[in-house]
Amino acid sequence: MNPAAAQKINIFIPRPNEAPPLDTAGPIGWIRQNLFNGKGNSLLTILALLFLLKTVPALLSWALFKATWVSGAACDATREGACWAFVVEKFRILMVGIYPSPHLWRPAVSFGLLATVVILTLFRLVSARTLAFLWFSLPLPLFWIINGGMGLAHVDQSLWGGLMLSMGLAVVGILFSLPLGILLALGRRSRMASVKALSIGIIELIRGVPLITILFMASVMLPLFLPKGVNINNLLRVQIGVILFSSAYIAEVIRGGLQAIPPGQMEAAVSTGLTHWQATRLVVLPQALRHVIPSIIGRCVALFKDTSLVIIVGLLDFLGMIKASTQDPEWLGYEAEAYVFCALVYWIICFSISRYGRSIEKNNAW
Amino acid sequence: MIHTDTGPQREKVAFWRVPAIRAILYQALAIGFLVVMALIIYKNTLANLAKRGIKTGFSFLTNEAGFAIGETGAMPLLQGKTLWLIAAVVLGGGVIFFLSRKMKKEGQELSDSTPLCLLAATLLIGLPGAVLWFFPGDIPTLHYSESSNYIAALATGLANTLKVSIVACVLSTILGLFVALARLSPNWLLSRLARWYVEINRNIPLLMQLFFWYFIVFQGLPSVRKSIELWGIISINNRGLFVPRPIFLAGGAPFVAAVVIALTAIWFYLRYVKRRQDSTGQQLPRMLPSLGCFIALPALSMACFGTPFSFDIPHLAGFNFKGGMTLTPEFVALVTGLTIYVSAFNAEIIRSGIESVSRGQREAAYALSFSKTESMKLIILPQSLRVIVPPMINEYLAVTKNSSLAVAIGYPDLVSVGGTILNQTGQAIEVIGIWMGVYLLLSRVISMGMNWYNAKIKLVER
Lengths: 366, 462
What we know:
The complex is a heterodimer of chains A (366) and B (462).
Chain A: H1 3-8, H2 26-34, H3 39-65, H4 85-96, H5 105-122, H6 128-137, H7 139-147, H8 162-188, H9 193-208, H10 211-225, H11 234-260, H12 263-271, H13 276-306, H14 318-326, H15 335-363
Helix pairs in contact in A: 4-8, 4-14, 5-7, 8-9, 8-11, 8-13, 8-14, 9-11, 10-11, 11-13, 12-13, 13-15, 14-15
Chain B: H1 19-52, E1 74-76, H2 80-105, H3 114-134, E2 141-143, H4 150-184, H5 188-202, H6 206-218, E3 228-230, E4 234-237, E5 240-243, E6 245-248, H7 252-280, H8 287-305, E7 309-312, E8 315-317, E9 320-322, E10 325-327, H9 329-356, H10 359-367, H11 372-402, H12 406-409, H13 414-425, H14 428-457
Antiparallel strand pairs in B: 1-2, 3-4, 4-5, 5-10, 6-7, 8-9
């Protein structure tokens, strides 16, 4: 081939890519693909938008723009927005009930302690062993600070209430029901017939009846079982009921974890010379517990929601205080504000805990 | 050389180290501890009861209750016609049970044989129907009043518990299905809305939601005079929901019979269609013939015997509504709260069930040219039901137990009525025993149903 001919050959020079059509990429493309792909979907989107348009602005204007925030005199009767002054006014009894005001620092300190441990857990600042120790020793200082004694003035348990009580019942309930639940779960898998039957009986009895009946039992029946002269107050009785209730459910969760551990683990552990109990404690249980941490966190959420039932046996927890404060003759007619605040607080707490559980499940973090 | 070694000598083991003996020791300890505890509790309880002057035993149940219950219905009494009806049901069920046991021993299913299925339909539907039709008189009923005894009060409470649980289970399943479908929809906005519906409802305590519905929504409704009217037949106000009540006319009984016959016929037809598909692969239309049968037979009965029922529409008379059926605000609030709370959980169960069927199944169905609906109906749903049903039944159990929160808003369910009795008589142990017994029985029955269903749909592994 001579050079002149070679020069005639067209050399392919790529042109720059054209931008994709507007309706397949970028925000418009996204909207087309996710909201308006097809007639049915477009209709659904428009309906959903109409629904949002109807509700959200009205809700926002009620809750934020037209709301009254300042405390002091009651909001006027012709108001259009929410009266958050009500919540501000009642904030103290919603949080701690009628806990005497000179000692208000004590719930605050307890809350600080709890928050510290929660932060240590969230950010994994200390080892798992230390965390377990911190959590399980937490009830003691909390009880001492709230209840008094040993240098602090005594505050009667009938004065406890509000969110403090709800959280206390839930935290103590979960912490005590864990070891009980482990025992019940091990008992249910035991080869000893009577232990097994006993564990199954307890678990199925508690899981088969509503929490209310257990609370009634703790509150009304338990005093009948005690010998003369021994008295335990209503709060402690209810707490016992909550622990029993929770431990049956925890036991089933842990049994699920135990079943997930292959029997070879136990056999291998025993063949290295560990006793049965040592193998359970050092080899099987740690693995099983790691499996079920997300489910246990799910139980925490459920138990925290369930503590609202104690209002039926006469304790004034957070929900109880909300209900009581709407019946204050000086502040009548603010039910909506009270219940919206209540829902918000419960929702924030439960949603954060369940999100934390989900993140652990996703990242397999323990 | 003579071997004197007889192998390794077994070491003598202390008797408390022998596992078998150990197990017996532990169990003896556990049982002994339990017995001692029970004895102590028994003694304490007797002493405490004696101190408070409460007589133990269930004899108080026949005393006059003396308190009113807001929501009562007619309950069948165990006399005359009721007994005959129960006998008919037991007889039919018993015959079918033994027949199916016998068939199973021979390795067959009862539903394999058409004559036996016909026999079963006759025994289960025809026999009770015949008793209802031909036996003289009405079913004797009892309407709770203040002069009834505690047993009637507790039975009314139990009936109310069952009523509210069944209604809430059905409604929450339907609502949950819709929310799950919305959550799975390719429409981003809709699936986000559904997700927030679930997240909001799951994370707020049921009791708070009940308070919200009862104290804010239903007590905040307008008064009787200004009640909201829907289509002129339903009225809503702060005394409850007033809806029309059907009144049975002369054509009522033939109409009900026609519906039952139509349903039975449809069952047989569907069974035939399925067997035909199994053996030949041909698909016959299902929907149209079934619907036609379901409409034609009752319509025929209406043409022959006259209109089955008319409606008693509530109307304002004086200070309140007269006629129709009243759903109390407590009932409506409880059903609404339970339905919405549980529907969030149901939606998650249904969604995860449908998502648990692997993508390949759907793709394979499309590759075999199944349509979208067919692949859903024949491939995805049957597989996901296996995952959905067990937790769903657990949820129904939870609804039954959670309906006891009725006590907080004054709906007279079992716990609420029992609480009143407990306050009146002080018979704490007996009342709590009745509560626990009834709820345990209910959960046993529901979980037995679950196990039966699970065994039925379990994958047959080869």
